[in-house]
Amino acid sequence: MDRRQAVLDQIHAAFDGVQRGDGTSLRESQVIDDHGSHEERQAARALDTDTRWQDVPDDLIAKHYSAFSFVDLAGHVYYAPAYMSWLVRTGYDTPSNSTESAVYAFDPRGRYDGQHQLRAPNEMFTPAQCEAIATYLSYVADVLDGNSCCSDARQYLEDYWWRFLPNATDPFADLPLRAELAGLDASAPPQQADIDGWLIRLSPGKAKRSRCINALRQGTLPLDDLLARCRQAYDAAGLPLAVRVTPWSQPADLDERLAAKGWGAFDAADVMVLNRLLPVPPLVELQALDAARYAATVGALRGSSDTAIAAHAERIANAPVTYQGFVLNDADGALLACGQMVVAGDLVGLYDIASAVQRQGHGQRLCQSLLALAYQHGARQAYLQVGSDNEVAKRLYARMGFSFAYRYHYRSPEQELL
């Protein structure tokens, strides 16, 4: 059996017996699109006499390219296999825009039900149906799309539907580690050294990532001896001893061993990632600042000391990667928000996002514009970090498409980390 027929058979098996019931019909969806009356909807509905999705005529599918924007949840599930089967059978050898609808129906964001609740795709479809959809999208991306960018099949597959394929592997499984390594480069201060596989950083600035120990590799020294050597360096620099603990810290049981010594946990942060950037224009115009001006701007918003601001400027000016700082101002030149981005290959990190005017959407517009600029510089994925207890910011980033990747925190024998 060829792949095309196998896809068709899987669709038919997974969706066999699905009924439209009281769901929106195909012709009815067109009346809704045209803002027709209730009577017109009922008349259109009466024309759709099919009781099986397999019997929906091809010419109606080709005609009603906007159906999935107007059918309800029951209608969506009923017509989805009809549109899938139609596209597999006809391919793109048709002028109909329904070829796009046959993919758009499986937007990973899901859709709203009759109670205005957003339903995820796996809440709309059964496990067998989800697997059939994933197989279908894989076929469309591999066979029908070819080198064309005319559909979102591959994007939808990589963003969400891949997980329903047999023996699936996450195409972005390495993104969290890539984000961690990129973040290490981006936060590197001039004052750092290696002690038996541990990267110690001794910046006098405010950012804890630049004045802590990153336990990157398993060394040869016993843990107590290694900590003693690190303490000497931090005492000499006048900084509190702190270890940043991540899922990749070495030794693997480092967190448990430090906790057993009575070291407290501080300042947990979540790293969030965005699997795919889109080629969209910036929402707002941003003004670029050099390192000194940017450090002064964000430092003033945070109430940082002069020493911390100077250290911040030094770090971003001398980092092994290029920081690009921007501000968003109003029409009169007053500061609304600021942020930085670091583009390294196809990955961009957002840093130091701060709003001067809270809860007005300025931070989100700034971030979306930074991502748009990063795309123009070659970035295709993104990462950022946010305090684990900052639920407002995490919801904002989630609305932008970011998802949780991993959490890190600090361990220190000190009572507090300033």
TrEMBL record:
Cited InterPro entries: Acyl_CoA_acyltransferase, DUF6714, GNAT_dom, Rv0428c-like_C
Name this polypeptide is given: Ribosomal protein S18 acetylase RimI-like enzyme
Domain N-acetyltransferase residues, every copy: 281-418
Source organism of the structure: Roseateles asaccharophilus
Pfam family, one: Rv0428c_C
Coiled coil residues, start to end: none
